[in-house]
């Protein structure tokens, strides 16, 4: 049941970070889960309703934790400006039109509080947007660490939690 998965994902933020997601009553800014095409959310607070799409194939706790991460302003780990120290990116293996998923974050937008985290919920897997998934890797850890997709992960890592708590500490 998707509602239960959403509740489990939210519980990770509520139990491990300074953030608290609560059921909406009349708050002007809120998150709304909907079933659209794909798994996505805008990056950071947009004001008013903030949609998180959980379309077909998005029904995993890790995927929902990942999309909530975007909602609170987290960028992809594999797009950090220092990622080339840790990853090889194989652009020729990326589906045409999907290359933007592998661009580095603009340095003026970036706040790095932790060491590079291959297991971050915000890190894509090694076949993300591959022309031939399972055959052509789009990225690979230089130290050989296997890179899993968010849906294959249980949720927030200790580094994810540190980053969130640093961003929202008040």
TrEMBL record:
SMART domains: ZnMc. Monomer. GO terms for biological process: proteolysis. Its EC number is 3.4.24.-. Keywords: Hydrolase, Metal-binding, Metalloprotease, Protease, Zinc. InterPro entries: Astacin-like_dom (IPR034035), MetalloPept_cat_dom_sf (IPR024079), Peptidase_M12A (IPR001506), Peptidase_Metallo (IPR006026). GO terms for molecular function: metalloendopeptidase activity; zinc ion binding. PROSITE patterns: ASTACIN. Zn(2+) binds at residues 66, 70, 76. Residues 1-170 form the Peptidase M12A domain. Gene3D superfamilies: Collagenase (Catalytic Domain). CDD domains: ZnMc_astacin_like (cd04280). This is Metalloendopeptidase. It comes from the Eukaryota. It is an enzyme of class 3 (hydrolase). Binds 1 zinc ion per subunit. Its cofactor is Zn(2+). Zinc metalloprotease. Provoques deadhesion of endothelial cells from cell cultures, and also degradation of fibronectin, fibrinogen and gelatin in vitro. Its role in the venom is not fully understood but it might act as a spreading factor that facilitates diffusion of other venom toxins. Alternatively, it might be involved in the proteolytic processing of other venom toxins or it might play a role in extra-oral digestion of prey. Pfam families: Astacin.
């Amino acid at each position: 049941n998707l509602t239960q998965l959403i509740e489990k994902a939210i519980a990770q933020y509520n139990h491990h970070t300074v953030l608290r997601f609560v059921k909406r009553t009349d708050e002007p800014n809120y998150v709304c889960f909907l079933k659209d095409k794909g798994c996505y959310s805008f990056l950071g607070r947009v004001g008013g309703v903030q949609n998180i799409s959980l379309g077909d194939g998005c029904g995993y706790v890790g995927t929902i934790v990942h999309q909530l991460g975007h909602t609170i302003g987290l960028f992809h780990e594999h797009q950090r400006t220092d990622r080339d120290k840790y990853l090889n990116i194989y652009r020729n293996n990326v589906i045409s039109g999907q290359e933007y998923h592998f661009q580095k974050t603009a340095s003026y937008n970036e706040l790095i509080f932790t060491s590079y985290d291959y297991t971050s919920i915000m890190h894509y897997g090694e076949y993300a947007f591959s022309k031939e998934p399972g055959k052509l890797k789009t990225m690979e850890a230089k130290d050989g660490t296997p890179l899993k997709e968010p849906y294959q992960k249980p949720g927030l890592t200790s580094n994810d939690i540190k980053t969130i708590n640093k961003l929202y500490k008040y």
